[in-house]
Every structure is written in structure tokens, then in C-alpha cells.
Automatic annotation (TrEMBL):
Keywords: Plasmid
UniProt name for this protein: Uncharacterized protein
Domain of life of the organism encoding this protein: Bacteria
Length: 47
């Protein structure tokens, strides 16, 4: 008899706050796409 493993419960991502200085901050989930976040930070820093 073959058994199927029980599905793993998905861990709820936590929120990470990134302080950018000058009163600016970005809040993202801990499992954020780091490449996309890098592009966003590049744009924010240019303004």
C-alpha cells in the first residue's frame, strides 16, 4: 500500500520593514521577489 505524504502547511510570511532614511520606509513580506524589490529600491533612491 502506497501512502501519500500529508501536504505541508504553508508558513505565513512575516512583514519586513526597510528604513530608507529621510522618513521613508518600505514594508514587504519576507518572501518578496528580491529582484523586483531591487528594481523598486533603485527607482525610489533616484527620486
Amino acid at each position: 500500500m502506497e501512502t501519500t505524504p500529508a501536504p505541508r502547511a504553508r508558513k505565513k510570511p512575516s512583514i519586513v520593514t526597510i528604513e530608507l532614511g529621510r522618513g521613508r520606509r518600505i514594508r514587504v513580506e519576507s518572501d518578496v521577489d528580491t529582484e523586483a524589490l531591487g528594481r523598486i529600491l533603485d527607482v525610489v533612491e533616484r527620486r
